[in-house]
Automatic annotation (TrEMBL):
Record EC number: 2.4.1.15
UniProtKB keywords: Glycosyltransferase, Transferase
Full protein name: Trehalose 6-phosphate synthase/phosphatase
Family of the protein in this entry: In the C-terminal section; belongs to the trehalose phosphatase family.
Gene Ontology molecular function: alpha,alpha-trehalose-phosphate synthase (UDP-forming) activity; trehalose-phosphatase activity
Species of origin: Bifidobacterium psychraerophilum
Top-level enzyme category: transferase
Phylogenetic placement of the source organism: Bacteria, Bacillati, Actinomycetota, Actinomycetes, Bifidobacteriales
Keyword presence, Glycosyltransferase: yes
Transferase is among the record's keywords: yes
Record-level GO cellular component terms: cytosol
GO biological process: trehalose biosynthetic process
Length: 530
């Protein structure tokens, strides 16, 4: 059995430079690192090749050697890219051309021959790093849209190599894909692999349709394309899972419990601890005194002061129980955050009885902050949150609690655990791990998932409240239904989904792809391999 060489845009670890100038590595969060990371950790002969994120222009040769050593001690081989390479290959062709195109946002895609040129060069840079590393019998598993030319480049150098390629995002219909001026080169690049993997059967079909339309090639009954050099490229679906136990366990950690408790207190689901209860008492007293004195605002205070509202709810039985909605996303236009906010606003307007009783915790992690489209999106979301909070807030209640920082995994799991409802409504998403993580953090309990039908996860999580994320009225209604669902009903829906997630984890996904690659490339029996 040969080694597994994992190749991805970024390595699973980033460099930290401390005040005394020493270097250390920090584990990256995110789907890819958490899905393949454990395989890399436990298979002591695997090697991970990827961009370090370090600008070589900022360090001396000796420092670069030290950084390289740090990575190599974790079986990682760092690639150093100049600022120009990063601008052209990463910010340019990968994020500004392929990302929008693959997510059906062709109108946002920038077709620039210059970034395409740099993209080709950087794929070659990856090839040159791989060449001296590879040994006979190794399997190479290339990840994602940043490295679509690499499979064919590698095939040309090593005709007998065993190569897999997996796409973490959707593959669009042939009619959308063909708008890319270099669509044929990209397809040929991918088809250098022995195994081409997607999250869903639909994406695999779109890819096969694009190959038929643009390269006039047809797959056999088993979904294999025979290429001019004689090698076969098989195409199949491998839906990615999560480390279910990790999320389940983390949601029960002390920090996650504290976070959950804090959110529930702030949302009025539990009696308030010191600060809020004293605020409530003071507000009650102030409002009562004012009412006696006939102050002009006393009526308003009695009607609207949420501290009174919450106190009254607890004492007299509220018409609505207090509830928490949560969402966790990278701040990306594919995640449908503005559309979702409009649906939430619509719900507050259509069902005003929720005012003072529902709080939306919106965690929007910064992403690609130096790209203009992302800066505009951030402004748009800031503005919408401000507008909704401005319009609907009561004196001590705001409809949206907005966080735009990246948080460690424990608080993230605390947020998931606190959510009576998770609102996961991407406009397009390869899989969406957040929906799965939410369910793992609600293992054995209630909690309703409102899920977009435009993500890969919808195929597996059919018991969720499935919606079209573009349909404001439908999302508003699904959200309302999810908030109204009984605890028993939501727990029942979750059991079926959780059972699936427990059996199809990140580890089984990883092992499944590698074993399929071994089969199609017939690594073990061929002595002609590398
Ligand atoms: C791509 C595809 C596919 C987010 N904020 C924080 C944080 N996160 C974590 C989540 C989750 C991950 O990031 C996001 O994964 P998604 O699947 O939702 O989305 P993408 O980042 O776009 O991932 C996607 C995935 O690849 C895997 O193939 O599912 O379709 O687009 O794990 O929890 N984690 C922490 N702090 C945060 O602030 N710790």
């Amino acid at each position: 059995m040969g080694r597994l060489i994992i190749v991805s845009n970024r390595l699973p670890m980033s460099l930290d430079v401390s005040d005394d100038g020493s270097y250390s590595l920090r584990q990256n969060v995110g789907g890819l690192a958490t899905a393949i990371g454990p395989y890399h950790k436990t298979h002591k002969d695997s090697v991970w090749v990827g961009w370090s994120g370090v600008d070589p222009g900022q360090y001396s040769d000796e420092e670069i050697d030290l950084i390289r050593e740090q990575y190599e001690s974790r079986r990682c081989v760092p690639i150093f890219l100049s600022k120009e390479e990063v601008d052209g290959y990463y910010a340019g062709f990968s994020n500004d051309t392929m990302w929008p195109l693959l997510h059906d946002f062709a109108h946002e895609a920038n077709f620039d021959p210059e970034t395409w040129r740099v993209y080709q060069e950087v794929n070659e840079h990856f090839l040159e790093t791989l060449v001296p590393l590879l040994r006979k019998g190794d399997k190479v598993w290339i990840q994602d849209y940043h490295l679509m030319l690499l499979p064919q480049m590698l095939r040309e150098r090593f005709p007998e190599a065993s190569i897999g390629w997996f796409l973490h995002v959707p593959f669009p219909s042939p009619e959308i894909f063909r708008s890319l001026p270099w669509s044929r080169e990209i397809l040929e690049g991918i088809l250098g692999a022995d195994l081409v993997g997607f999250h869903t059967v639909d994406y695999a079909k779109n890819f096969e349709g694009s190959v038929e339309l643009l390269l006039d090639k047809h797959s056999d009954d088993e979904g294999r394309f025979t290429m001019p050099d004689g090698h076969e490229a098989a195409v199949d679906a491998f839906p990615i899972g999560i480390d279910y136990n990790l999320y389940r366990r983390t949601s029960r950690s002390n920090l996650a419990r504290m976070m959950r408790r804090g959110i529930e207190e702030a949302a009025g689901k539990r009696p308030h601890s010191r600060y809020l209860s004293s605020l409530t008492a003071e507000s009650n007293a102030a409002a009562e005194a004012s009412a006696k004195e006939g102050n002009w605002w006393s009526h308003y205070a009695h009607e609207e002061l949420p501290e009174l509202h919450l106190a009254k709810s607890a004492a007299e039985g509220s018409p609505k129980p207090n509830k928490v909605i949560v969402s966790v996303d990278r701040l990306d236009y594919t995640k449908g955050i503005p559309e979702r906010l409009r649906a939430y606003q619509r719900m507050l307007e259509k069902y005003p009885e929720w005012a003072g009783h529902v709080t939306y915790y919106l965690l929007a992690t910064p992403s690609r902050e130096n790209v203009d489209t992302y800066k505009r999106l951030k402004e748009q979301v800031d503005q919408l949150v401000g507008q909704i909070n401005g319009k609907y807030s009561l004196l001590a209640w705001s409809p949206i609690h907005y966080i735009t920082r990246s948080l460690p995994i424990k608080p993230v799991c605390g947020i998931y655990a606190a959510g009576d409802v998770a609102l996961v409504t991407p406009l397009r998403d390869g899989m969406n791990l957040v929906a799965k993580e939410y369910l793992a953090c609600h293992d054995g309990r209630d909690g309703s998932l409102v899920l977009s039908d435009m993500c890969g996860a919808a195929a597996e999580l059919s018991e969720a409240f499935i919606v079209n994320p573009y349909d404001t009225e439908a999302v508003c209604e699904a959200l309302h239904d999810a908030l109204e669902t009984s605890s028993e009903e939501s727990a029942k829906r979750n059991i079926a989904m959780q059972a699936r997630l427990k059996s199809r984890t990140a580890a089984t996904w990883c092992a499944g792809f590698v074993s399929a690659l071994e089969q199609v490339a017939d690594v073990s029996s061929s002595d002609k391999r590398l």
